[in-house]
Fold this protein.
Amino acid sequence: MARRRIIAGNWKMNKTPTEAVELVNTLAGLVKNDDVDVVYCVPAIDIVPVGAALMGSNVNLGAQNFYIEDKGAFTGEISAPMLKDAGVKYVIIGHSERRDIFGENDVMINAKVKKAFASGLSPILCCGESLALRKAGVYKEWIARQIKWDLDGVSADEVKKLVIAYEPIWAIGTGETATADQAEEVCKMIRDQIAEMYDAATAEEVRIQYGGSMNAGNAAELLSKPDIDGGLIGGASLKEDFGKIVNA
């Protein structure tokens, strides 16, 4: 089957609300592609103004994080129902920066995946290895374990709607990029892991992105691989070049 390509921009902690709307307007004519799902995963403070700026466009609104409770005494947090009500469709879960800087483990990430589905949000689940794990030759086992833990108790029907982003940590914001063959190797392994946990039909439907310094120069080669269905784009999503990636 032909999976629909998905290109998501992870804006990280960049752009004030005013700057965010300016970027949306700058990119508006560059990301028009009815054959690709385009997503802007923006900081929480930008969700409402960006959502308004995207009205009537082909671009989906995404968030970068949420907490697992619907409401309550959780100062500084935002809930999945809040995101849903604000028009968010996709949410990044388990990004390496959340894991490494904020200490989110696979138990928390698994809870977030389940909460996202229960709230009507589509998770973009991140997985990937450090340079040390890559050099030690155990990166496949590491990523397989992440997938097993993060999807524990998640149904096949939900997994079919899931987006998985393979992000080699050593290639995020470093200018280093996994070769197209390296990226394809892991993305295929992830698909095989889903087939083992569920079945071949589920594995065939799940969309897998590459998320490590994809840019306008290397996007076409990466996206030509059979198991790479899109990209989770960091720095390049804040530039006009993002349009070239969408249309690669």
